[in-house]
Design a protein that fits this description.
Layout lengths: L27 H10 L10 H14 L7 H10 L13 H11 L8 H13 L9 H11 L17 H4 L1 H13 L17
Bound molecules: fe (ii) ion (FE2) (2 copies).
Length: about 200
């Protein structure tokens, strides 16, 4: 287990979208707890490899002003964690949100931020978009990883300007079709186990 990164400093926003620094808040302990309850293959279509790419997408999209980098990070690990099958699983977003509530103390968010995390998890497959830009970015992080199941992300199904940028879609798509294993630093962690 790694040293817990807790308490967490807030995401540093400088006011300039290019200079925003996003601090990692996902810990090995949180990953272990999510893994313990996950019902599907850990390295499967909706498992840790997908989540870690969703995380990478989130770090990129959080460069947009008004996108909360801590919420998008935590969305990556919770949004599919309650799945019971790899296909159509209508209530998995709600179960992901419920899991986040169970593991609330591992989520370095204030209550209003935590509400947005649970909203993003609950609605990520059912809503086309949302009023809140961070929730939109959460939806985008997941939809940008559709290449793994043979689908090129559709800009009409994306929400934030950076996600809709053809360069972002191309970047995410290439990564989703060639990477069948964890990136070198999943969830921003230098040390990781994947068994
Ligand atoms: Fe999902
Ligand atoms: Fe997903």
């Amino acid at each position: 287990m790694s040293v817990l990164r807790w308490p967490i400093d807030p995401v540093v926003g400088t006011g300039s979208a290019n200079k925003r620094e996003i601090l990692n808040i996902i810990t090995l302990e949180l990953i272990a707890l999510v893994k313990e309850q996950y019902n599907l293959p850990w390295l499967g279509t909706h498992g840790i490899v997908h989540w870690s790419r969703v995380y990478d997408n989130g770090i990129k999209l959080a460069k947009q002003e008004d996108v909360n980098g801590r919420i998008v990070q935590l969305f990556s690990i919770f949004h599919d964690a309650g799945r019971t099958n790899e296909h159509w699983d209508r209530n998995h977003g709600k179960r992901g949100a419920d899991l986040a509530r169970e593991l609330r103390k591992y989520c370095a968010l204030d209550d209003s931020e935590f509400d947005l995390l649970t909203i993003a998890c609950e609605l990520h497959t059912q809503a086309r978009t949302h009023d809140n830009l961070t929730v939109q970015a959460c939806f985008d992080t997941d939809r940008l990883d559709l290449g793994r199941v043979g689908t090129v992300p559709d800009p009409d199904r994306l929400c934030t300007p950076l996600a809709m940028d053809p360069k972002t879609i191309d970047w995410a798509y290439r990564k989703s079709i060639v990477d069948d294993k964890l990136p070198a630093t999943p969830f921003g962690l230098k040390k990781y186990w994947n068994e």
